[in-house]
Write a structure and sequence with these properties.
CATH class of the largest domain: Alpha Beta
Number of strands: 21
Main location: cytoplasm
Binding site for [4Fe-4S] cluster 2: 168, 172, 175
Number of helices: 14
Bound molecules: S-adenosyl-L-homocysteine, iron/sulfur cluster, FE3-S4 cluster
Function: Catalyzes the methylthiolation of N6-(dimethylallyl)adenosine (i(6)A), leading to the formation of 2-methylthio-N6-(dimethylallyl)adenosine (ms(2)i(6)A) at position 37 in tRNAs that read codons beginning with uridine.
Domain MTTase N-terminal: 17-133
CATH architecture of the largest domain: Alpha-Beta Horseshoe
Number of domains: 3
Radius of gyration: 24 Å
Domain Radical SAM core: 154-389
CATH superfamily of the largest domain: tm_1862 like domain
Strand order of the largest sheet: 2-1-3-4-5-6
Largest sheet: 6 strands, parallel
CATH topology of the largest domain: pyruvate-formate lyase- activating enzyme
Length: 450
């Protein structure tokens, strides 16, 4: 050892840099945030829950409704003092607002260092090193998944998301997704099975397959042939240790026979289906470019229920779409009555720049508010009834975390309800049979079945 070296001995342990990510919007963004964190891991960043200690703040944004998009700017406003205190702080904007507004974000908020779209975030490390433009929102030829770390380094948890399909080609008249996420692309079977096996090896027992049109997935199979979504689910069900499979979000027009049959045949496929319908009026469905009628939706539900009688259905509704009359609204209410949903999301129509419906005349805002209230009251009644129906039933529950009260564990039922159980006998990651004894506002209480 040289003299020189021994003199300059103080060990330089470079502390890991801290990354804070805030995620808005759908599950696909939750998944993307995890993948971005993994990509940044290679640059020496570790996640922090505390924004104040972050070296980089990444806001993964949603553009679906005006309110969602505006949140970005109020958050950035709140970040200004932090950046003033800490000039080295990097601020990045990812996700669907990044895609939709690009450079405009930096113009409005110069504190932003990086803007990256949902299909380009694999290049975040390069952007950070100054080896790529600091605004990247084109839809690249390459597939981001080929350029992300292959091994999933997600936090240990028994349930995980897995994106199998990106983008959307449906162009519903109100929706920004085809513009923010780009064209529909299905990931190949091999990649999906590989990622699923990797997750299971890390202790994951439940996987939710994600896509904006997930049931429209069709990909190159391991045999070189084109597979449909039902076949993919069957292949996943053969993975040892993968106990539960879910998927979201689906389009009614892509509920193929082989998928309905999978609901009948594959025990790992949970009896739960989120199938957005948006409206019960044929006139409005047509104006929305949904390409099916209310009766076609109802027939489809009948076929699904025939295949899996105990399935729970959930949906999305938009209230106050341009041109919606009292009769249209009544038609939607009737469809809800007829189906009986376990729960549903409902939104007041929000005009989005760049979509076909944006130019159309809006209906009276107060009328839309009143309709939304009426519709939500009905959906709440249905949700209560569905939860009440669970009392006395014994369901599988996958335990995910301890409850706030010591001695309590919280898990998810087959139907995705949060279930509280007072027990010292289960651990995180256990899948146990639980008898439901009580229904609360948004959860159930149960006891371990003997
Ligand atoms: N791909 C999914 C929907 C993704 S967006 C599907 O086809 O069903 C999630 C939900 O947001 C939609 O189902 C719709 O109910 C709602 N939504 C989308 N655009 C909206 C808008 N402009 N105003 C209000 N709600 C909207
Ligand atoms: Fe949007 Fe329609 Fe595509 Fe769903 S199917 S993401 S609502 S355009
Ligand atoms: Fe929002 Fe983009 Fe998802 S607009 S709902 S984050 S696909």
């Amino acid at each position: 050892m040289s003299d020189n070296a021994s003199k300059t001995a103080p060990e330089t342990v470079t502390a890991a840099k801290k990354l804070f990510i805030k995620t808005y919007g759908c599950q696909m963004n939750v998944y993307d945030s995890q993948r971005m964190a993994e990509a940044m891991g290679g640059e020496g960043y570790v996640l922090t829950e505390d924004q104040a200690e972050a070296d980089m703040v990444l806001l993964n944004t949603c553009h679906i409704r005006e309110k969602a998009a505006e949140k970005l700017y109020s958050d950035l406003g709140r970040l200004k003092p932090l950046k003033a205190d800490k000039p080295d702080l990097k601020i990045g904007v990812a996700g669907c607002v990044a895609q939709a507004e690009g450079e405009e974000i930096v113009r409005r908020m110069p504190i932003v260092d990086l803007v990256v779209g949902p299909q380009t975030y694999h290049r975040l490390p390069q952007m950070l090193r100054g080896e790529a433009p600091r605004i990247l929102t084109e839809f690249p030829e390459e597939d981001k998944f080929d350029h992300l770390p292959q091994n999933r380094a997600t936090r240990r948890a028994p349930a995980a998301f897995l994106t199998v399909q990106e983008g959307c080609d449906k162009f519903c008249a109100f929706c920004v997704v085809p513009y923010t996420r780009g064209a529909e692309v299905s990931r190949p079977v091999q990649r999906i099975l590989g990622e699923a096996r990797d997750l299971v090896a890390r202790g994951v027992r439940e996987i939710t397959l994600l896509g904006q049109n997930v049931n429209g997935w069709h990909g190159a199979g391991e045999d070189g042939r084109e597979w449909g979504f039902g076949r993919l689910i069957r292949a996943l069900s053969e993975i040892d240790g993968l106990d539960r499979i879910r998927y979201t979000t689906s389009h009614p027009n892509d509920m193929a026979d082989d998928l309905i049959e999978a609901h009948r045949d594959v025990p790992q496929l949970m009896p739960y289906l989120h199938l957005p319908v948006q409206s019960g009026s044929d006139r409005i469905l047509k104006a929305m470019n949904r390409k099916h009628t209310a009766v076609e939706y109802l027939r489809l539900i009948e076929r699904i229920r025939a295949a899996r009688p105990d399935i729970m259905l959930t949906s999305d509704f938009i209230v106050g779409f341009p041109g919606e009359t009292d009769q249209d609204h009544a038609d939607t209410m009737r469809l809800i009555e007829e189906v009986g949903f376990g729960t549903a999301f409902s939104f007041k129509y929000s005009p989005r720049p760049g979509t076909p419906a944006y130019e159309r005349e809006e209906i009276d805002s107060k009328v839309a508010d009143a309709r939304l209230q009426e519709l939500q009251a009905l959906l709440t009644r249905q949700q209560k009834a569905a939860q009440q129906d669970m009392i006395g039933r014994t369901l599988g529950v996958l335990f995910e975390k301890p409850g706030r009260i010591p001695g309590q564990m919280i898990g998810k039922s087959d139907y995705l309800h949060s279930v509280f159980v007072d027990t010292a006998e289960v651990q995180i990651g256990d899948l146990a049979q639980v008898r439901i004894v009580e229904s609360a506002t948004n959860s159930l209480r149960g006891e371990l079945a003997a």
